[in-house]
Amino acid sequence: MSAMIEVTDLTKWYGPTLALDRASFTVEEGQIVGFLGPNGAGKSTTLRILTGFLPATSGQACVAGHDVLTDSLAVRRSIGYMPENVPLYTEMRVDEYLRFRAGLKDVPASKRREAVDRTVQRCWLTDVRRRLIGQLSKGYRQRVGLAEALVADPPVLILDEPTIGLDPAQIQAVRELIRSLAGKHTVLLSSHMLHEVERTCSRVVIIAEGRIAASGTFDELRENLADRQRVVLEVHPGDGGGGPAEIARAFAQVAGAGDVTHKNLGEGWLCVHVNPAGNADPREGLYSMVAKRGWRLREMRSEVPSLEELYVRITAGEAADADRPAA
Ligand SMILES: Nc1ncnc2c1ncn2[C@@H]1O[C@H](COP(=O)(O)OP(=O)(O)O)[C@@H](O)[C@H]1O
Ligand SMILES: [Mg+2]
């Protein structure tokens, strides 16, 4: 397998706004990779740079072995791009539009009919192929956008939030279509929803505030999470006293403890969550603290956070200072 998309130290400033901060990642041939991150993370910016619509401030991006800056024509020929807001010619009929776009993408005239027929079928547009695009529902227009990206049968597809604004049945259909592209095409699709990417993609690249926070297969991400076990304790100050806030503060000072949260369980019992700082293991220190203060302890266990939790933490910037899984 070779890298079909290669992004190295990509940086983009919009005036004073740093939208991309030395982002690096690769997408191997034939894979479907999710580009996951909250709104404003820098997804669309990255995809626009990859498709040659926007120059980067610094760094490098290559698609199918071509540099997007110096070889943009070859890059555009290798890519089918579905932007965030699909620009469509509302006064054209679906098949006219696809034929027109196929022409612009250098599909030879003799092959255009076949290309349009194949794409219409692939994108479930057969029923509406003679309709005016302006009269189609959002879901159908989205599919026309996808069909446009596919019509010249490019090796690489770059899809920016392809299911946004669709209803559940339409989302299902678009997901199925994207999954059916695996192997034959290399796909990079952006989304702000983890479950979206989990269902469609084999790998994920997580971006937050312009930086790549994690990447890998879902199994790899889970394995990395296993090193980041959170310690859960149930303690009671006993006769030694000390309020909940004081207990939480004491735990936070233990070597290897990162952020600490707590909640009251009633009758003086407190449930405390201690996230480790980086890959540290604070368990022994936590137990020593309990013993030293003479608190009562009825539970101490380790918990692996879920991917969803990790994503929320990255999104909230909480993982920013912690050790990041899988570079
Ligand atoms: N044309 C632009 N001019 C100025 N700032 C922009 C422009 N486009 C995007 N940004 C800013 O860059 C950051 C990344 O935006 P974007 O790439 O659209 O993120 P995403 O697609 O992940 O929501 C945001 O802070 C956004 O406000
Ligand atoms: Mg976007």
Number of DSSP strand runs: 14
The percent of residues in helical segments reads: 25-40%
How many distinct helices?
Answer: 11
Order of helices and strands: EEEHEEHEHHHEHEHEEHEHEEHEH
Describe the structure.
The chain has 327 residues and is α/β, with parallel strands linked by helices. The protein folds into two domains: 3-224, 3-Layer(aba) Sandwich (Rossmann fold); 229-303, Alpha-Beta Plaits, CATH 3.30.70.1340. It contains eleven helices and 14 strands. The strands form three sheets. The protein has a six-stranded mixed beta sheet with strand order 6-7-8-3-9-10, with helices on both faces. It has a four-stranded antiparallel beta sheet with strand order 2-1-4-5, with helices on one face. The chain has a four-stranded antiparallel beta sheet with strand order 12-13-11-14, covered by helices on one side. The chain is elongated, with a radius of gyration of 25 Å. The model is unreliable at 318-327 (pLDDT under 50). The structure holds adenosine-5'-diphosphate and magnesium ion. Magnesium ion is lined by residues 43-44, 84, 160.
List keywords for this structure.
alpha/beta; Rossmann fold; Alpha-Beta Plaits; 2 domains; six-stranded mixed sheet; binds adenosine-5'-diphosphate; binds magnesium ion
What's a concise summary of this model?
The chain has helices at 43-50, 72-78, 94-104, 109-122, 138-150, 168-179, 194-200, 218-226, 244-252, 283-293, 307-315; strands at 3-14, 17-28, 32-36, 58-63, 66-67, 79-82, 156-160, 186-191, 203-208, 211-217, 230-236, 257-266, 269-276, 296-303. It is of the alpha/beta class and 327 residues long. The chain folds into 2 domains: 3-224, 3-Layer(aba) Sandwich (Rossmann fold), CATH 3.40.50.300; 229-303, Alpha-Beta Plaits, CATH 3.30.70.
